[in-house]
Amino acid sequence: xxxxxxxxxxxxxxxxxxxxxxxxxxxxxxxxxxxxxxxxxxxxxxxxxxxxxxxxxxxxxxxxxxxxxxxxxxxxxxxxxxxxxxxxxxxxxxxxxxxxxxxxxxxxxxxxxxxxxxxxxxxxxxxxxxxxxxxxxxxxxxxxxxxxxxxxxxxxxxxxxxxxxxxxxxxxxxxxxxxxxxxxxxxxxxxxxxxxxxxxxxxxxxxxxxxxxxxxxxxxxxxxxxxxxxxxxxxxxxxxxxxxxxxxxxxxxxxxxxxxxxxxxxxxxxxxxxxxxxxxxxxxxxxxxxxxxxxxxxxxxxxxxxxxxxxxxxxxxxxxxxxxxxxxxxxxxxxxxxxxxxxxxxxxxxxxxxxxxxxxxxxxxxxxxxxxxxxxxxxxxxxxxxxxxxxxxxxxxxxxxxxxxxxxxxxxxxxxxxxxxxxxxxxxxxxxxxxxxxxxxxxxxxxxxxxxxxxxxxxxxxxxxxxxxx
Length: 470
Prior knowledge:
Blueprint: E1 14-17, E2 20-22, E3 31-42, E4 62-65, E5 68-74, E6 79-86, E7 93-100, E8 110-115, E9 120-125, E10 133-136, E11 171-178, E12 184-192, E13 195-203, E14 208-213, E15 221-222, E16 227-228, E17 231-235, E18 239-240, E19 246-254, E20 268-276, E21 282-284, E22 290-293, E23 308-310, E24 323-326, E25 332-338, H1 350-357, E26 359-365, E27 371-375, E28 387-390, E29 396-400, E30 404-408, E31 418-421, E32 433-434, H2 438-442, E33 444-450, E34 459-467
């Protein structure tokens, strides 16, 4: 297997004291350090161009906590499984949960979260604009992983509510996130594609509370071709930075196909950004203006000013739910992907056009408060999504479809994007699920991927590990 550790180190040294120069921070590099098998026969079917075991919106399908890594997936017999291993270990301990995947729908992912207030593991699974299934562990299970038994007895019953709280009958896209105080929040969409609202619930270590919806589906959007009066906001992520600010990049999807130049495209348009400094209760645009209140009458809407940070019309097959991250200074970064205008101004088949001409772009807020976008010069060769990771030095890594890894250095202003790893030997289907928390734990880029198969023939599910600069 080839190892590539290219890209120069930072360009400038920083003066620490008169006559003393500090060595420049290293640039990005990746070194393969391991590959483990979670399941030699995981469930396999292609739905909405994706797999249920590794979809981009599956936040925390793989994560690290307290020296252990956790993963969740569906087996060939369709049972939900949750597993753990000590960091660096080659084998996983698994627990099969008493729930079977109900439909061949790649939206019905398993997402996990940790409530630090009581040390529980939470899982939300198997929903697409309908009811969900929820399981939580015994208290303290994740606080003492070396002394607590990893068995089915450590998990409670499968529920169809959040301990009695039923937030919506049309539930999709569960994403758990931990607040700085150790509470656990759950982001989700209420409604359906093209006509839905984002909402939050919160667990304080004792009970779940519905914080309410914070986006609106209403308002009129007009393109060069027509108008639409309903939509939903698709999140590229929802994440706290190290200073307690909650960040969310997004794109809008319109309900009315009349906004497109061709019915074979996709109605996604514009990349927007909002943030919250009060744990998701109040939302502001990048200029700091309040644009919505969670659970209030005024919600974030397509007609609000200052939301769009990278404009794009619906004719370029802009992908929804790509990825985002925040750097050590609390500045937001995102990956967006679409068919650039040099390949035409009207996509007519978004899967074929994205596969043939799609490109990913790195979008970030600079120290000056402006937005910088840089094309990653690697063809997608896929209709699918790219994941973003920042290392301890704020170098950026894009994990492209098929497990390819490109990177750019902080020193260059994130403009020197280069392919570091070509994915050879993985035989990955397409999208991967990145462990968003492991980089901070031990400078390792870790992602879950599934091998290509055909039809409904099960295939192997793996976790690949790459060392980043220490």
